[in-house]
Amino acid sequence: MANYDYDVLYIGSGHGTFDGAIPLAARGKKVGVIESGLIGGTCPNRGCNAKIALDAPVKLTRLTEKLQGIVNGDLSINWTENEKHKQEVIEGLPDMIGGLMKSVNIDIIKGHGTFQDDHTVLVGDEPKTAENIVISTGQHPHRVDIPGTELAHDSADFMNLTDLPANITIIGAGYISMEFATIANAAGAKVTVITHGEKVLRKFYQPYVDQIVADLKSRGVEFINNAKVSSFEKDGSDFIVNYDGGQVKTNWILDATGRVPNVDDIGLDKVGVDYSEKGIKVNDHLQTNVDNIYASGDVIDKDQPKLTPTAIFESTYLMHTFAGDTTDAIDYPEIPSVVFTSPRIAKVGVSVEEAKKDGFTTKENHLPDDWYRQVTKEDIGDNTLVYDKQNHLVGATEISDQAEDAINALLPAIVFKFDPAQLERIVTLFPTIAADAWGQI
């Protein structure tokens, strides 16, 4: 056996790393983590945690809006204080995550890692060797390739705005576009969303997405669909977004056209690791074509959603693999996803579209008819439950103010395909959103 510095060396410190690296090191493996930026990667520092902190006041204003007359007075969002609070929420996370790693003797190696060979990563001029190496470098924001692209900003820039521009133009039709359009609009900005196609949130059930768009339009968000953006220009202190049907003058441009795997400048070609523009290619053990090099998280080219829960599951799977607990292939469960608009839209398992193709049974519920949703006067809300031919719940899609919690509540029934007797054994707290969700199965 070669005498390596580490049993496992991770490149990147996000959820694709630390959720598995910490318990792996606690079990006695020698672990190193290379990180050039903030410990924890995108999600804690410039993604999920920051976004949900900025969104919390939006959710509150929506609730008070519905309960006007019961709750008196109009609320407005102080953007500067909102951003300050967001920073207070997230600023301690890198040290917290780093502290957890150090507590189990993980070496945190600051710097940019580049493969020298299949067992060696250079950090600066210093080689670090390992029996197994995990690439967990995540993704970065895509930039639209047009003249003036440098005038646009990315999602991290938006979440770090200390003053909210009066007029914001967003390019894109995905999660980031819809979530930040919701937040900026609720905080008082005039928002224009420009999309390349006709639809937004294309991977979600479109009748529910249409309700999200209709609500945003009613609040003043303008959508320009089927528009090919051609350039960005500076116009004094403002900017011009040019597209094939005209132009939009704006104070600030958000490029929300997607995210790109971080596969460049880490020496993949030097060691012969296969990758594409979609990410690193792996087998069903998260192993690259180089036997001792693995990948985890959003950097992988995969069919599963590139979300934090997926990265956590992959990181935990690799922990069990390296610890010798299993030699089995990774077996992904149903992974839920949610868009944090107001209302939310969330889904898990078999989609409505797939159900119709496969002859599965669907059941629709209009949630404002439910007594529990009437407590907070929810006026937008629907879900569709999908059952297989053995009448197991295998999928759910929901639009509502509490869609993320409702879908979470249904996960055990979907993942484990509970039969009627098992469903009866689940006794939920009442009255709660979980009880409401289970009562609809």
Automatic annotation (TrEMBL):
* UniProt: NAD(+) binding residues: G172, A173, G174, Y175, I176, S177, M178, E179, G258
Cystine connections: C43-C48
User: What InterPro entries does the entry give?
Assistant: FAD/NAD-bd_sf, FAD/NAD-binding_dom, FAD/NAD-linked_Rdtase_dimer_sf, Pyr_nuc-diS_OxRdtase, Pyr_nucl-diS_OxRdtase_dimer
Report the family membership: Belongs to the class-I pyridine nucleotide-disulfide oxidoreductase family.
Q: How is the cofactor bound?
A: Binds 1 FAD per subunit.
Give the required cofactors.
FAD
The cross-references to PANTHER family, in alphabetical order and at most eight, read: GLUTATHIONE REDUCTASE (NADPH), MERCURIC REDUCTASE
Superkingdom of source: Bacteria
- The molecule here is called Dihydrolipoyl dehydrogenase
Q: Which Gene3D superfamilies match?
A: FAD/NAD(P)-binding domain
Instruction: List the Gene Ontology MF annotations in alphabetical order.
Output: nucleotide binding; oxidoreductase activity
Where in this chain does the record put each FAD/NAD(P)-binding domain?
6-313
What sequence ranges are listed for the domain Pyridine nucleotide-disulphide oxidoreductase dimerisation? 335-434
Record the organism.
Answer: Lentilactobacillus sunkii DSM 19904
Keywords, in A-Z order: FAD, Flavoprotein, NAD, Nucleotide-binding
Question: Which parts of the sequence bind FAD?
Answer: K51, G113, D298
Record bears the keyword Nucleotide-binding: yes
